[in-house]
Amino acid sequence: MIKRIFTLIPTTLSSRLFWALFLPSLSISIIACFLLLSSRFSDLEKSLYEHATNITKQVVTTSEYAIVFSDQDMMNRILQNALENHDINSVQIFNSEQEIIAELGKAAPLTNNFLKSDINIAEFSDYLALTSAIHYASNIFDSTLNAKNNVFISSNHRNVIGWVRVEVSTSETQIKKYQYASLVTFIFILFNILTILGVLHLSKILMQPVNKVSLALNKLAKGQFSTVKLMSFPPEYAAIQKDIFDLTERLEHHNEKLLLGIEQSTEDIRRSMDSMEEKSAQLYIANREAMESNRLKSQFLANISHEVRTPLNAILGYTKTLQKDITNKQQRLYVDTIEQSTNNLLAIIGDILDFSKIEAGKLNLESNNFNLKSLIDDVYQTLSINLLSKDKQIDLVPEFGKETPEWFVGDSIRVRQILTNLIGNAIKFTHQGSVRTKVSIASQDKKKITLSFHVIDTGIGIPEHKINRLFKPFSQVDTSTTRQFGGTGLGLVITKKLVEQMHGKIEVSSDPTIGSTFRFTLDLKQSNKLNNDKAPLNRHIILLEPSTTYKSYMHRYLNEIKVSCTSCFDLEQVISVLSKEQRTTDAILLSVTPDEQSVLEAKELILYAGQQFNIPCILMIQPPGQIANYPDLKGLCSDILLKPISHDRLYNALSNLNHTPIGLQPQQPPKSLDTEKLTRLKILAVDDMPINLQLLSHWLQPNGIETSLAYSGQQAIEMASIEQFDMILMDIQMPEMDGMETTNELRLLEGYENTPIIALTAHALGSEQQQILASGMNAYLTKPIDEEILLNTIDNWCSNTETLQDQIDAKLINIFDLEKALDIVDGKTDIAKEMFDMLADSLDAEKKLIQHHLAHQDTEKLIEVVHRIHGASKYTGTINIARHAGFLETHLKELELEGVEGVAEDFIEAIEDLLNHRQLIPWPQTLDSSTTNA
Ligand code: ADP
């Protein structure tokens, strides 16, 4: 009930109705109770006062005589009579001096003097004290007779002969009051309970139709139309009932229509889902097929590479061997042509492989310290030897910006490839003039430098409408069958991809009347290595350089190293200047053209300057040099520099001026291999192709290396278990047991744990090379094998005491912590590896996601991905990733995308590092993995 009343706090309609009905009756009943109680209480008090006053007056009247006659008995009787009233506590009679003369009952002690008035009433907590004076009338006996007279005598004029004090108990009146209050409260509660019940009943009756309407609407909302139709309303709500039923009808109708529509749409959706499923299944199959064909393509490429490079290996190897022995001019020309053609074929295969790698997204960049200036010099040097001819004498000028650092960290092989291709093209398509390469800094921050390269030629140029074809695969500007220049049309495509992979851009501008300029940028990292700054030479020279381009290039550099020079146009001018400046001249720098006349004149000048003035000459020659035809010339000059002349070589030549010509110097023996060390070596060569094995033994045996040949992996193991070899040269692709499997088995043999095993592979993909190292081999050489490189590698590895594990550990130390990975899972290798694989498998996709979010500046999603990798990397031993993910996550949370590039790059690099070295992790052998490996 109480609960019910509490729920009736006026929040709902029914509760409001309840309070509207109940509140008036409650207020009326409260007022009525109050009035009843107050009137009854005042009545009770009034009658108590009256009763007490009457008794007091009675005692006063009767005690007058007793006091006058000092009648103690009478006084006692009077008191006795008064005390017979049960509510009288005590009665006292005092004389005029206010001394007690008679007393009955237990009186409270007196507190103050009596008042002079007739009757005084004092109220105490549980009694009333009434005091009254007793007056003496002059003739008490005449009082009845003289009553008339006494009436006119004021009481003041009458004599006070004593006092009466009566104490009347109030407790009985109090009890009556309580009784009455209880009765009224009981009636009040009863009345209100009955009222509440009545009001509840009434409000229920009043609310019933409203509730019904609300219930009906509720059912309508839930779509229970039939239930609504069955509902009945009181007759006075007939109109509402009708409206509700109409509404129900209409809603039911709409609902049916809607259901029909939904059914139709569901059917449509189901059908399109079916077709989507079918499509997605088809797509899945197509994707699988594409992936499979991609895999087959990669496999095919690897095989082709192997199949083509293996015979080429033999062709090149034997060609080089033949070149040493052939003396017949005609035959030598044939062999040179074979070598040249084989090299061209190799270059084409290299291009096709690179292109396929790029297409398959498998081109990974390496990172190493390299000197860009030397690299450009080297590219020029190689290309000038290969591409310049007697008829094609163009100036090749590398212009390296003075402020540009020389050392960088990046993929030097790919930078070389880009430059070789662009400079090679420029030389190929230029008949006269120059090919210049300018390098300068485009922008720079703490971590990376963006370099700007310009390869400028004065060649045939490219018509404007054909420029946009340039970077498309297999496209060449001249597609006619009579085209003058060979090539696959892949060079620029590969170049563009490589540039883009190094976060750069490439563009070209060309004018057939002027030539072409290829501009590109590359992002490289700064290296700790410093430029090799040159001390000023403070020299003076005479320069004979007919080419103005070359002359100004030389002037610029000579200025930098504080070498002053007098430029001459021809030999006569040199001689005349020489006679004037002989004292101040330190050297003559002489450019010689490849024709015989020029070489002869140069020879005369060198002799003249040397003999007459003791001034040394430095020759600058352009390939193909005729110098070889004049061996005596070589012996006369201080130095011979091959054009294009690099700064370093020019500086060295000028700083080490030799007044004793080089031909007369004691010959320095060329740096040779430690043949004694090689003589003691026992090498096992493993290859399924007898021709390759023959070639190997042909190269090794003359150097005193004891070479044993195995024609299969199985045979290699058998031979190795009988005899101990110092080193093994291992082919990778062999029938039955390949090189990697053979290595695995060999490593299990006693004495072969650390024996250097060098792979001879025709496989070109980076991932395969990683696999080769992971299988336990120490190094690899790519076919076709060069004799010198082979011997150098053997030489390196016989003196290398570093074990394979040492090398792997050195690579992995900053990337992966195996101990940590195993500790987390209580040393359970299976689980640790599974967790690691899960993370590593996802990293490639995550990396792309990060790059995508970075490009779209989506900080929140970026944090989400980085946080995910951060979490996972903590439990998989991938310490480097965990560290960089931590940096990146904190950076993103605190600074958002401001300056995030460098941090993100480091993180991505950490991911790539792990993926590149993943195969090298030395997981302890478990039962499972050992069976898989076997
Ligand atoms: P290729 O192997 O045929 O040289 P590239 O991709 O390197 O393939 O070049 C594609 C074509 O672009 C060339 O065949 C040539 O027509 C044109 N080309 C490239 N560089 C130059 C240049 N410096 N001057 C003129 N034409 C050029």
Task: Give the topology.
Layout lengths: L1 H5 L6 H56 L3 H12 L4 E8 L4 E6 L13 E5 L3 E10 L10 H5 L7 E11 L1 H52 L2 H6 L7 H88 L3 H31 L8 E4 H16 L7 E6 L6 E4 L1 H17 L5 E11 L3 E10 L33 H11 L4 E6 L3 E12 L12 E6 L3 H13 L2 E6 L2 H11 L5 E6 L3 H18 L3 E5 L9 H4 L4 E4 L4 H9 L19 H5 L2 E5 L3 H11 L5 E5 L2 H10 L4 E5 L7 H10 L8 E5 L4 H9 L4 E4 L4 H13 L4 H9 L5 H7 L4 H27 L3 H15 L5 H17 L5 H17 L9 H7 L1
Parallel strand pairs: 7-9, 13-14, 13-15, 15-16, 16-17, 18-19, 18-20, 20-21, 21-22
Antiparallel strand pairs: 1-2, 1-5, 3-4, 4-5, 6-8, 8-12, 9-10, 10-12, 11-12
Adenosine-5'-diphosphate binds next to helix 10 and helix 11.
Written description of the protein model:
- The chain has 934 residues and is an alpha/beta fold.
- It folds into five domains: 166 residues, Beta-Lactamase (2-Layer Sandwich), CATH 3.30.450; 161 residues, Heat Shock Protein 90 (2-Layer Sandwich); 124 residues, Response regulator (Rossmann fold); 114 residues, 3-Layer(aba) Sandwich (Rossmann fold); 114 residues, Four Helix Bundle (Hemerythrin (Met), subunit A) (Up-down Bundle).
- The chain contains 29 helices and 22 strands.
- The strands form four sheets. Strands 6, 7, 8, 9, 10, 11 and 12 form a seven-stranded mixed beta sheet that branches.
- Strand 20, helix 20 and strand 21 form a beta-alpha-beta unit.
- The longest helix has 88 residues.
- The C terminus is likely disordered.
- The structure holds adenosine-5'-diphosphate.
- The site of adenosine-5'-diphosphate has 21 residues, from helix 10 and helix 11.
